[in-house]
Specification:
about 425 residues, Antithrombin, Chain I, domain 2, Alpha-1-antitrypsin, domain 1, 2 domains, eight-stranded mixed beta sheet, five-stranded mixed beta sheet, 10 helices, 15 strands, elongated, disordered N terminus, Serpin_dom, Serpin domain-containing protein, serine-type endopeptidase inhibitor activity
C-alpha cells in the first residue's frame, strides 16, 4: 500500500479532480467568505436558516447552475468513468450513495431521480443503525465509515468510491524490475522494487521538477449524452449533440508523474503546479519526445477518508454541515409546511475511497528494442527520470481534460 494524500488544491485545480477524483474535479474560483450563521440558534425553523447553501455549493464546484452540474456529471459518468475493460481499455469502477435518515422527511423524488440518472448513485431514505450500515449498503459504507460514526443523530451521509486499473500502452518488462531504495521526506528510506524502461517518451523538464507522461491502453467509447471540451484550462460543461466524429473516439487515459529535482522539493513543486488553474493543460504543450531512462516504484494506493467534513470546511464549504444554517430543501423534503414536526437536515458525513494499482502489467509487447548504454556514458539528450523520492501523479482522461485521480507518493510501501 502506498502512502497517498490527495492534494486538496490540485484535486480541485482542474480535473478531477482522484482523486482518485476521486470523483472528477474542475477548476473553481477562490471562494468568498461564507455568510455568517444566524445569531439565534435556539430554533431550527426554516425561516431562520441561511438561503445561501445552494449558491455556496455551486461556487465551490465552479458550476453555473445545478442543471449544468448534473449535465456535466452525466457526461463524465457516461464518457470518462465508464468501464472500458471489455474493449481493452482501463478498468474503471465507481459507485456513490446518498442516504438520509427517515426522521428528516426523506429525499425528494426529483433529487433521487437525478442522483440515479445523472450520477449513477443510489439515493435512499433509511433509519441509521449499525445493522443498516452492514446490510443495506452491501458493506460499501461499512468499509469506508466506522459504525461508531453513524448513529441515531446522523442525518445525511454522502459516499463515493472509485477504482482504476489500466494496462500501459507500452508495458514495463518484468525482467527489468529490480530492487532499489526510496528516500522519504523524513530522511528515512525503504527498499522496494522499481520498474524500469528506456525509450522515447513525452517529458517536460521544468524549473525544479520534471513531468513524464505514461499513456494507458486505449478503450472504445460508446455514444454519450454530450461533448466535453477543454477551453482555456476549463472543462466546458455546455451540453451539445455528440458529433459523429467523436462517437467512435476512444478514451485516452494517461498518468502524469511530477518528480521534483531534489528529494525535499515536493512542497515547492506543488505550489507551482497549483498556482495556475490551467497548469495541467498547459504542461502538455511543454512536453517533447525524448529518450528517457525511467525508474518508477511499483505501488498500490488504497485511499480511504471516512469523513471529509473538516477538509471541505477548510476549503470554504461550510453551510451544508451547519445544523443552524443548512438549507437542503431541494434535496430533502421540507421540515415545515405540512403540519408535521421533523428534524431539519444537515450533512453529517462525506466519505471517499479510491484505489489505484500501478505495476508492470500490460499487453504482451511485440518486438521491443531496449538500448543499454555503456562506455562513454549516456547521450546528451537523455532524461534520467528516477522516482526514488516523493512525487505526485495525476491520472487524466485527455480528450475531456477530466482529472480522475491525484496523489502524492510519500512511501510506496505503505
Amino acid at each position: 500500500m502506498a502512502a497517498a494524500t490527495t492534494a486538496a488544491a490540485d484535486a480541485a485545480q482542474d480535473g478531477q479532480t482522484p482523486s482518485l477524483s476521486a470523483s472528477p474535479s474542475t477548476s473553481r474560483p477562490r471562494l468568498p467568505p461564507p455568510p455568517p450563521p444566524p445569531t439565534t440558534t435556539t430554533t431550527t425553523s426554516r425561516s431562520r436558516r441561511c438561503p445561501c447553501t445552494r449558491a455556496q455549493l455551486l461556487a465551490f464546484l465552479g458550476a453555473p447552475s445545478a442543471e449544468g452540474l448534473a449535465d456535466f456529471g452525466r457526461r463524465v459518468a457516461d464518457r470518462v468513468l465508464a468501464d472500458r475493460s471489455d474493449a481493452g481499455g482501463p478498468r474503471v469502477l465507481f459507485g456513490g450513495g446518498v442516504w438520509v435518515d427517515a426522521a428528516c422527511g426523506g429525499l425528494t423524488d426529483a433529487f433521487r431521480d437525478v442522483a440515479a440518472e445523472a450520477y449513477k448513485s443510489e439515493a435512499r431514505t433509511v433509519s441509521f443503525t449499525d445493522e443498516w450500515v452492514k446490510k443495506a449498503t452491501d458493506n460499501l459504507i461499512d468499509s469506508m465509515i466506522s459504525t461508531d460514526d453513524i448513529n441515531a443523530a446522523t442525518d445525511l451521509v454522502l459516499a463515493n468510491a472509485i477504482y482504476f486499473k489500466g494496462d500501459w500502452m507500452e508495458p514495463f518488462q518484468l525482467q527489468f524490475t529490480s530492487p532499489g531504495t526510496f528516500h522519504r521526506l523524513d530522511g528515512g528510506h525503504v527498499e522496494l522494487d522499481f520498474m524500469e524502461k528506456y525509450r522515447r517518451m513525452d517529458v517536460a523538464c521544468m524549473d525544479g521538477f520534471k513531468v513524464l507522461k505514461l499513456p494507458y491502453k486505449l478503450g472504445a467509447t460508446p455514444p454519450a449524452h454530450g461533448q466535453l471540451k477543454r477551453r482555456r484550462g476549463q472543462v466546458d460543461t455546455k451540453s451539445k449533440d455528440m458529433p459523429s466524429t467523436e462517437v467512435n473516439e476512444s478514451t485516452r487515459y494517461s498518468m502524469f508523474v511530477f518528480l521534483p529535482d531534489t528529494r525535499d522539493g515536493m512542497a515547492t513543486m506543488v505550489d507551482v503546479v497549483t498556482a495556475a488553474a490551467a497548469f495541467m493543460y498547459s504542461i502538455s504543450a511543454e512536453m517533447k519526445l525524448r529518450d528517457v531512462d525511467l525508474k518508477l516504484p511499483k505501488f498500490k494506493i488504497t485511499f480511504n477518508w471516512g469523513n471529509l467534513k473538516e477538509t471541505l470546511c477548510q476549503l470554504g464549504l461550510t453551510l451544508p454541515f451547519s445544523p443552524e444554517a443548512a438549507d437542503l430543501r431541494g434535496m430533502c423534503n421540507g421540515d415545515e409546511g405540512d403540519g408535521k414536526s421533523r428534524r431539519t437536515t444537515f450533512l453529517s458525513k462525506v466519505a471517499h475511497m479510491a484505489v489505484v494499482n500501478v505495476n508492470e502489467k500490460g499487453t504482451e509487447a511485440g518486438a521491443v528494442a531496449f538500448h543499454v548504454h555503456g562506455g562513454s556514458g549516456p547521450p546528451p539528450d537523455l532524461v534520467e527520470f528516477t522516482a526514488d523520492h516523493p512525487f505526485t501523479f495525476f491520472i487524466m482522461e485527455e480528450r475531456s481534460g477530466v482529472i480522475v485521480f491525484v496523489g502524492h507518493i510519500l512511501d510506496p510501501t505503505k
